[in-house]
Specification:
Belongs to the UPF0309 family. It contains nine helices and five strands; from the N terminus they run ααβαβααβαβαβαα. It has 251 residues and is of the alpha/beta class. Strand 1, helix 3 and strand 2 form a beta-alpha-beta unit. The radius of gyration is 18 Å and the shape is globular.
Length: 251
């Protein structure tokens, strides 16, 4: 069976967005990678947070083959994926004032660490307050968002600000408001979301940049190997032992 028209259109749209991000966000990706490398050298820890489907790119850089072993997920109950019932609860929790502060105050983060905050719209209280509170605690914040939302929507945070307003580095995914790249006769709503593809690529580009930065400084970056290749488990076990004080997902 040949590829459908819509499948080809989706791939073209995703590839176009990836090219835009590669070309237009190169400087910010470099800055984010350098910040990660500096934090690793200084003995800091690395965390990533995303709400709802924005948690998927955060999870994608934690405990995975080819990934930086020091990346930790900062989980918020009810906000990781769509595993809560009803699924709409996750969206509701993202709009709860004060939740981010409670999570951070009861997490292992400390001054000098880096936190990725991933939110497509960047307009809800949870990601905005996550960035604000993290910076107040002395963390550096890398925001991953679509800046287009800041001009086409209004903030739901009491300050009227967006995630991008509270970050040390902002990575713009270029995703259009609504996160749907396709339309077709007979389909009442736009479809074909590309935010996960693009945001995951952004995150991996930053990790790759950080690995290169560390290598240039003469430091072998602590990357994980696949457990499905010979010697992978032994390699990872040694990495975990060497950097155990900065890895929280194995405790």
């Amino acid at each position: 069976m040949s590829e459908s028209k819509q499948a080809g259109q989706y791939f073209d749209a995703a590839i176009g967005l990836l090219r835009r991000v590669r070309d237009e966000e190169a400087e910010n990706i470099g800055a984010a990678g350098a910040l990660i490398a500096e934090t690793v050298v200084a003995g800091g820890r690395l965390f990533a947070f995303g709400a709802g489907h924005s948690s998927l790119p955060a999870q994608d850089v934690v405990y995975r083959a080819g990934g930086l072993a020091l990346m930790n997920l900062l989980p918020v109950p009810g906000m990781v994926g769509v595993d809560v019932m009803p699924a709409t609860l996750g969206s509701a929790l993202e709009r709860v004032d004060g939740l981010a502060g409670v999570v951070l105050d009861n997490s292992p983060v400390r001054a000098g660490d880096v936190l990725f905050v991933i939110s497509l719209s960047g307009r809800n209280p949870l990601p905005v307050e996550m960035a604000m509170h993290a910076r107040a605690l002395g963390l550096k914040v890398i925001g991953v968002t679509s800046v287009a939302y800041t001009t086409a929507t209004t903030s739901r945070h009491s300050s009227g600000s967006f995630l991008k307003d509270h970050c040390d580095v902002v990575l713009d995914s270029k995703i259009a408001v609504g996160d749907a790249e396709l339309s077709a006769d007979g389909v009442g709503a736009p479809f074909g979301p590309a935010s996960t593809v693009v945001t995951s690529a952004l995150m991996q580009a930053v990790m790759a940049t950080a690995a290169g930065e560390l290598a240039e400084r003469g430091i072998d970056p602590p990357m994980l190997r696949s457990g499905n290749v010979d010697g992978g488990h032994d390699w990872n076990r040694q990495i975990m032992a060497d950097y155990g004080d900065r890895i929280f997902y194995q405790r």
